[in-house]
Amino acid sequence: MAALCAMTVGLASPATAHAGEPDIIGRWMTKDHDGVFEISQCGQQVCGRLAGLRYTTDMPRDKRGEPECNLPMLNGFTPDPETQGHWNGHVTDPDTGHVYHAKLWVSQSGDLKLRGFVAVPLFGETETWTRYTGDIGPACKLP
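That's the DUF2147 domain-containing protein sequence above. Prediction below.
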């Protein structure tokens, strides 16, 4: 999770996606393997929530003191009109509450790319997430 927060400051593969669903739909493990996001269809948009976390004592909390479990952090993603397979939306930093522009897409290798940025994508950072097919325990705890 720390990596996502740092990144904001600076889904299923096509073979398994349901008909009509974007290929970003599904569960994705963050680059540091400390969080799993579940990306789903939210009406005409795509959104994502923090569905799983690695933690040893207490559940991590956002800036308001709310548990990060099921926290919606990827919001308002719509298809990029200029680049097929890319999605434009927003990512929320749970530590500060700041909202940043973001892009999502699935690379040719099948990994999910998340680019968070302020104003223009040139001044952002891209993370690579991998598909997650494991279990998530009670209270969003990852094994």
